[in-house]
Amino acid sequence: MTAIPNTEALPETASNARRVALIVAIAFFMQLLDSTIISTSLPQMGESFGVSAVAMSIGITVYMLTMAVLVPLSGWLADRFGARNIFLLAIVLFTLASLACGFSQNLTQFVAARVVQGLGSALMTPVGRILVLRNASKSELLNATALITWPALFAPVVGPVLGGFITTYLSWHWNFFINIPLGVIGLALVARFIPGDREADPKPLDWPGFVLTSAGLALLLYGLERIAHPEEAVLPTVLLIAAGIVIGWLAVRHLRRARHPLLDLSSFKVLTFAISTLAAGTIFRVAINATPFLLPLLFQVGFGLSPVDAGMMILAYFLGNLGMKTVTTPTLRRFGFRSVLVVNGLIASAAIMACAAISPQTPQALVVALMLIAGLSRSMQFTALNTLAFADIDAARRSSAATLSSMLQQVAMLFGVAVAAAILNLSQIARDRPALDLVDFRVAFLVFGAIGLVAALRFLGLPPGAGAEVSGHAPGN
Questions:
Q1: pTM, two decimal places
Q2: Is 306 exposed, middle or buried (0-12, 13-18, 19+ CB in 10 A)?
Q3: What total of structural domains would you count in the chain?
Q4: I need a surface site. Which of 72, 117, 231, 281 has the fewest CB within 10 A?
Q5: Structural domain for 465, as ranges
């Protein structure tokens, strides 16, 4: 990828960087809310289509696989046709596909609409990050990243609760129709406020790199997704994951040798990007991403709460995410990325492990306090990781870096859920019981807490002044 012209890489004002980040955040929220809200309405959708709820899972699978196939192409498309134009296209595709999902009359129509939705989603996340990176200077990157991080924090928490409410009191169709006003608002704001840009000398498309990267990612993610379903046969799942790893290795080998690679892997030579995105960052995201999956199950299956009561407990987790936003920037400015990622990482991991100690007899005030702490530390860690990842990435590598980051975050998200489901199932099998119990959740929380602790200590590998230009932290103070 060639360098982005300076006239396009430098923002005119700090307010412009915040405005672009806020617009991108609206689109991200629409996308992520849709991904989490659908799970609550699968039984009702299956009944409407005349199929089982299990059969409806294909709607989630095709969406995920479409994203996996097309995400690697997003950076090249942004350079070739302009990030703003591709982002507009992504919102149009996602919005129209949401409309088609809501009006679907059978499973075939719904699956076709989900494929188009996955296409829009595959372009939206990495290209949205590229827009933010191109319109924010290093001093503005922290605030801009905080804005585009909140959808990833809030949507997985509020999505199931909102989806259950909509499905119960309206109908499942409205889980998709609510995307229409968000999409229209996003289109209008992008067209009005985000400047156009295009790579001055776009490189030819690396077809072998595209095929290998997409195939490897799709096979790996599909295999990980199957782990979360104990009814799936084990051998095909293992073969899918193995094939994904092998093809992924071939893709890496090709990208390192190609003259014009689809993805520039030299970003991994940048220490801050490598640690926050590939090494400790991915490991920590696995632990963090498992939590929104485990908590609703813990409260409903382990505690015996109703979906509504469980949703109210999760609300405290959501409020913790929200409350940290006001103190993230001054905290990073005061202590720096290294100290925050280590200390806050230890706190977040301890909060995960503490979830293993609560029970239906635990005072509700203590459970709410724990949810607040878990949400606060999760928010801080996500913002710090997402900002540090691009602190030392130059303009020429931003498109590839944003695409690589999106791919790895997808893997971490699915891996977290897959491993959580596998731990619950293995614990239940080891106890030789027909149903999940509180002890199974305790095992899962302890395992993910330990994973988080290991990752938090790995951040000690960062230099004390890592990302100081972005955070404003003066090492030694």
A1: 0.82
A2: exposed
A3: 3
A4: 231
A5: 266-477
